[in-house]
Amino acid sequence: MADKMLRRAVEREFEIIGEAMGRIEKLDSSLNISSKKQIISMRNRVIHGYDKIDNEIIWGTIVRHLPTLKKEIESLLK
Asked: Which InterPro entries does the protein's record reference (predicted)?
């Protein structure tokens, strides 16, 4: 939390992931990605600054949701 540059870098990665998810959704909304809508919503919150970005929400997403997303994407790529 003390490293502002690192926090901003993580937020930027969420922007990129969310933007990619939005594009994937437009191309094929039938793809089975469990958190599509939430990922896109997170991107919108980060990029547009809706409310203040809560570091606990960001960290919770990293710990709880990114591993699942990674597995789902790896499965789709196979």
From this structure: HepT-like, HepT-like_sf, HepT_RNase_toxin
